[in-house]
């Protein structure tokens, strides 16, 4: 396929990426969506082969059923002039095989991180009933930010299909093949787990466990020979991590992990200090005829002990001989010799101590969830430096460290490389109305959102609770695309009460109306205060009331006896048309009000009950009307005292 060719009149070929036994892969540009994609094109010499066609279609079917961040996505499947092609997500990076070759030895923490991503993808496939059957580092892609993507489901099969591998034909790469597949049995989830165990072995040791002259000899070793010890190859690998390899690669599928999730959970804690003294896992496989292999580590340790014993014995003989020959000289110059010995010994101790201090292994501290500045301060105390910082989308709070990518132990002054979270790449916005603002805003900022706050007084919603949000619940957005604006309740508006003593009742009523206060009036005969003027008030001047609270005043009686009665008015909420708020205005008629004077103006978001005091003279009837969103919804004219 030549560069520039437009496949399906949409995908313009840029350059080849790789060749396989079934298909060739090219980098292309999607001319419609203006993005880079990878295109897998079935080889021309195989397009008429029914078995190859089925395998190609099976890969497309298997991959399109999966939607996981660690599985390469399939965008399109088509045919162009008889050529079958598949359009996939383009991953800019390399495969895990090349990555191991280039970066080995890989820090154990990064090994765990890589395997956790791989296991997450395999678990997602298994949950959909899909078994990969060809898991190997060549089918695992790793991008520039160390993100993992599994590809090539070309020989994947549904776990419900009881299809046997063809006789004398081994599907999958032999270095990662499970014993049951090598024997020609059905591939199961445990077959994939065996392959994952071999991949973990290679990440830890830099090589595969078995080599041979041909594929058959390697396959035979998989079901006859014990997997070599990773600790015999590298003694710095914890026993708890080797135990993961042992369990995953058990010859009997029933003795392996029950699921990829179970393997991931075990591997995740393999570097924990409380597992440092874990004993080697012993699995009694069903093949009793296997050749027994001596423990290389034990043999090496025994040889070292023997060598040390011989050195100690030789040193003791040498010291005895020197002591006899130098005895006479020591007696002649005892003081000078002691001084020289002391000086040399002190110098040796000083140099040795300095050498040890600057070359001693320093354990890298846990930097997760720290900022780069905090990490720098922590490392400085350990005589280490903060090195290369890379960024990646993560559930960890934006700006906080996700993980370190350096070895677990370093020497004085060396650098620790870290990955810092860029927040999530996309987020499904929830319904935050009614939630606490502080905790909601903190959570959104951790995910990379810019959060803005607007305050609004509310009679019915507690202070600090969210009233409204600018992004609809259920929307999936990029945190960096737009800020989240949250309208938050400021609680009820407070009103400072002035001194009403000797003021006319009409002034008090105007104040109460302007500040949405309920007014209760009592009367009392007075010889010193003019009629309808305030004698005393509750609360006192300088006090504060919330909107909707009651202000009570006692006024001088004009001689007409009055009586006050409280009426409860139940106001229904109108939610038609998606309304979230209703404006309600209340008008009353009593001794102190007429129906042209607004008594109360409130905003409600649910059915609300208010108490209204009516001050009535003898034989007088009170009245009220309630207007909601500009329409009168209720009224009464027969209120008596």
UniProtKB/TrEMBL annotation:
Its EC number is 2.7.11.1. Gene3D superfamilies: 2.60.40.2560, 3.30.10.20, Phosphorylase Kinase, domain 1 (3.30.200.20), Transferase(Phosphotransferase) domain 1 (1.10.510.10). Residues 303-336 are annotated as: Disordered. Residues 11-271 form the Protein kinase domain. Residues 313-329 have a biased composition (Basic and acidic residues). Keywords: ATP-binding, Kinase, Membrane, Nucleotide-binding, Serine/threonine-protein kinase, Transferase, Transmembrane, Transmembrane helix. It comes from the Bacteria. Pfam families: PASTA, Pkinase. GO terms for molecular function: ATP binding; protein serine/threonine kinase activity. This is non-specific serine/threonine protein kinase. It comes from Candidatus Limosilactobacillus merdigallinarum. The gene is pknB.
């Amino acid at each position: 396929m030549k560069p520039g060719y437009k496949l399906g009149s949409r995908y313009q070929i840029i350059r080849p990426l790789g060749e396989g036994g079934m298909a060739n892969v090219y980098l292309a540009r999607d001319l419609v969506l203006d993005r880079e994609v990878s295109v897998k094109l079935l080889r021309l010499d195989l397009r008429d082969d029914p078995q190859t066609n089925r395998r190609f279609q099976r890969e497309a079917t298997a991959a399109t059923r999966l939607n996981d961040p660690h599985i390469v996505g399939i965008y399109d499947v088509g045919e162009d002039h008889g050529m079958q092609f598949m359009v996939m997500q383009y991953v800019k990076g390399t495969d895990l095989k090349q990555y191991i070759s280039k970066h080995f030895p890989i820090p154990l923490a990064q090994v765990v991180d890589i395997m956790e991503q791989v296991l997450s993808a395999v678990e997602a496939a298994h949950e959909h009933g899909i078994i990969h059957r060809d898991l190997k580092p060549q089918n695992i892609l790793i991008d520039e930010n160390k993100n993992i993507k599994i590809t090539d489901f070309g020989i994947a099969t549904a776990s419900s299909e009881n299809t046997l591998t063809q006789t004398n034909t081994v599907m999958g790469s032999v270095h990662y093949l499970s014993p049951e597949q090598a024997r020609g049995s059905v591939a199961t989830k445990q077959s994939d787990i065996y392959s994952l165990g071999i991949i973990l072995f290679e990440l830890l040791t830099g090589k595969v466990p078995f080599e041979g002259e041909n594929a058959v000899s390697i396959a035979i070793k998989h079901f006859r020979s014990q997997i070599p010890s990773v600790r015999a190859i590298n003694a710095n690998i914890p026993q708890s991590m080797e135990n993961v390899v042992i369990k995953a690669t058990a010859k009997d599928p029933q003795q392996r992990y029950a699921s990829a999730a179970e393997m991931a959970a075990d591997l995740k804690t393999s570097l924990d200090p409380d597992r440092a003294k874990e004993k080697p896992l012993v699995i009694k496989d069903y093949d009793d005829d296997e050749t027994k292999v001596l423990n290389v580590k034990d043999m090496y340790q025994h040889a070292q002990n023997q060598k040390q014993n011989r050195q100690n014995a030789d040193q003791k003989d040498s010291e005895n001989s020197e002591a006899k020959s130098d005895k006479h000289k020591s007696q002649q110059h005892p003081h000078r010799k002691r001084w020289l010995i002391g000086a040399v010994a002190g110098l040796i101790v000083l140099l040795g101590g300095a050498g040890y201090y600057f070359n001693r292994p320093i354990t890298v501290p846990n930097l997760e969830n720290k900022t780069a500045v905090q990490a720098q301060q922590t490392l400085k105390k350990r005589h280490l430096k903060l090195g290369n910082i890379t960024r990646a989308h993560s559930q960890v709070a934006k700006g906080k460290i996700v993980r370190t990518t350096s070895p677990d132990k370093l020497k004085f002054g060396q650098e620790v490389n870290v990955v810092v979270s860029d927040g999530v790449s996309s987020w499904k916005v929830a319904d935050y109305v009614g939630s606490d603002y502080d905790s909601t805003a903190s959570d959104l900022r951790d995910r990379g959102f810019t959060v803005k706050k607007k305050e609004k007084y509310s009679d019915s919603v507690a202070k600090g609770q969210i009233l409204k949000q600018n992004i609809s619940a259920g929307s999936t957005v990029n945190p960096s695309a737009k800020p989240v604006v949250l309208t938050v309740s400021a609680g009820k508006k407070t009103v400072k009460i002035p001194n009403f003593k000797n003021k006319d009742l009409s002034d008090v009523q105007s104040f109460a109306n302007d500040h949405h206060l309920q007014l209760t009036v009592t009367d009392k005969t007075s010889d010193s205060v003019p009629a309808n003027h305030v004698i005393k008030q509750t609360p006192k001047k300088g006090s504060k009331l919330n909107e909707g609270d009651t202000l009570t005043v006692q006024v001088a009686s004009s001689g007409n006896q009055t009586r006050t009665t409280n009426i409860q008015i139940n106001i229904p909420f109108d939610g038609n048309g998606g309304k979230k708020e209703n404006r309600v205005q209340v008008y009353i008629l009593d001794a102190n009000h007429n129906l042209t004077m607004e008594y109360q103006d409130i905003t409600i978001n649910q059915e609300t009950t208010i108490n209204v005091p009516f001050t009535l003279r003898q034989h007088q009837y009170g009245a009220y009307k309630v207007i909601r969103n500009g329409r009168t919804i209720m009224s009464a004219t027969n209120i008596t005292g």
